[in-house]
Amino acid sequence: MKKNQFNSKSKHNHEHAMDDKHEHMNHHNHDDHNHHNHEHMNHHNHDDHNHHNHDDHNHHKHHHHGNFKKIFLISLPLGLIVMWLSPFMGIHLPFPFYYEFKYSDILALFISIILFIYGGKPFIQGAVTELKNKQPGMMALVTMGISVSFLYSVFAVVIRYVTGEHYMDFLFEFASLLLIMLLGHWIEMLALMKAGDAQESLAKLLPKNALLLKEHGEMVEVPISQLKINDVIIVQSGENVAADGIILKGESRVNESLLTGESVPVVKKVGDFVIGGSTNEYSKLEVKVTKTGKDAYLSQVKNLIMDAQSKPSRAENNAKKVAGWLFYLALFAALVSFVVWYLMEDLNSAILFSITTLIIACPHALGLAIPLVISRSTSIGSVNGVLVKDRQTYNLTTKADIVILDKTGTLTTGIFKVQHIDLLDNSLTEEEVISILYGIESASSHPIAQSIIEYAKNKDIKALKFDKINYISGKGLEGSVGLDTYEFISVNAYKEPITIQNDFGYTVSILLKNNKAIGVVKLGDSLKTSSQKLIKELKHKGIRPIMATGDNEYAAKIVANKLDIEYYANQSPEDKYKLVDKFKKQGLIVIMMGDGINDAPSLALADVGVAIGAGTQVAIDSADVILTNSEPGDIASFIDLSFKTNRKMNENLIWGAGYNFIAIPIAAGILAPFGIILSPAIGGVLMSLSTVIVALNALTLNMVKS
Length: 706
Hints:
InterPro entries: ATPase_P-typ_cyto_dom_N, ATPase_P-typ_P_site, ATPase_P-typ_TM_dom_sf, ATPase_P-typ_transduc_dom_A_sf, ATPase_P-type_domA, HAD-like_sf, HAD_sf, P-typ_ATPase_IB. Helix 4 runs antiparallel to helix 8 and helix 14 packs antiparallel against helix 24. A hairpin with a 2-residue loop joins strand 16 (507-513) and strand 17. Among the domains are: 322-383 and 648-706, no CATH class; 384-413 and 528-643, 3-Layer(aba) Sandwich (Rossmann fold), CATH 3.40.50.1000; 417-524, 3-Layer(aba) Sandwich (Calcium-transporting ATPase, cytoplasmic domain N). The chain is of the alpha+beta class. The radius of gyration is 33 Å and the shape is elongated. It contains 25 helices and 22 strands. It starts with 10 loop residues before the first helix and ends in a 7-residue tail after the last helix. The strands form 4 sheets. The chain has a 7-stranded mixed sheet, with helices on both faces. Strands 2-1-3-9-4-7 form a 6-stranded antiparallel sheet.
């Protein structure tokens, strides 16, 4: 397995990552493998993907044909007036359901023209795209329905006034179909979250300007775009590092959690590599820039994300398929109907039967079949901490072969806690040792020091008051209380022979009193309570769980053994990306679950990307599903919800489209020889009934919390 600079999660690094005072952690220099491997991504530069047009890929995530909410709300009053002034399938209902006065049909027609141009525009644009791609679907079917009903109605109203002969118009059907379709698309937009922009979130990590150190010590603020390789920049405490580089002067701890998901800041000193976008937490650093522009770490990650997003989705859109079949069936049936009725009867009969066929083909129920289920599913999911951005996700999840899981922050808490304290001196109690540890660490703000303080506070133990506390360079801390001296150092800094059982790969530190070891503190990450259950449920569903982590081999193996799963250690963003790509090329459906920027490219590439909500914004932006409670068990709940949602969508498609498949041939007059003709009125009633069944079926969807 490769080792590289992306791996800041390594447990061996934690042994060198205690406090700004705990310099005992960094006894070996990571620079060689850090710097060498940072370059390792550059051969795989995806810059040439920048020109990709992502519209096709992202079309299912965003409707590019206008804001359906705005169009629906403006169209609603116009459509209702048209429906009020027009008879339903030729039936003149009593007031207040229908209102007729002289020239009311002219007024209804005039409003319909506005409605067709404004409300129909997104469907017509969508139909043009579908027909250009030679894949007619829902947009083409809806456009056919509204166009035929509208244009025939124009013809019917004009003929009525020109010849005095009565022709039935379909303005009611036109307006109702258009409003239902706009409502369906709005419901779906409302249900699905707006997908975030991962690239925007990446850009926010870098400061706009950098403090450039010039000759003679002069400092000048310049835009980061002007930085060149070998420039020296100053990074003050609390600032984000402006570019990838090597530390020339200074020592600090650098928080790379936004980049890696790792909660423990890493101690960095002269010669160490720092990543642009990470946060300098402690003291001023002088950094020599080694990477800029497209070669920088964040640009490499950005290119991987862009590359992933440019690849087409493998999701099957069943609704689109069904709509495509209906489109061809309706056209074929209408054409056959026209020819047959023209030969058997006359032109009027031929036109009426073919028009009725095309209008009955319009999928009122089909238009709501999917949006109503999605709306119900996303609302149930959000209440239970599962946010879904993309409806295709449900379909793909039900077919998943593999789930790739990040370790730190995903399967584990990502928080260092005191796991165990071993006493080495029988004359001292555990409370006394904890009190000493609390006292010596009380001056530190480092997360590991804080975990010791929290541990003591939870046990309601008071801190021992120290006379003085000093930082021992390269070792740890020392302090004195009266005549007694104490040291709290890393196990590597302790030169005496000592046997410590450490089966779980914890970070180990030793407490000494007057040069004698009196206690051993084991700190480490721990599995989330729902991780075991998740793995069990994935295996039960026949989905293969694999852990991919930036941590070292030893730390990865311990967690993998606990969970009894396959694992890959020392994984950089590119490694994880290649892992997902490898499985996808084998024809497998891949779910990826992670929380850091190093997970973002693989989250975007995976068929379904699942982001842990407590992770980074970039990971969240790159994912299809977000677990707001950061509980891995919620992925099992989501998979269960996906199966149920998919089943409801298919049931609704059968109800919504089944009516159409039966009604279209009957409307075309196939049963006319037997005296059975589907009148427009009966067709309308069946259409409404189908829509009600679809709505009620969607409401029966529920979710079982794992």
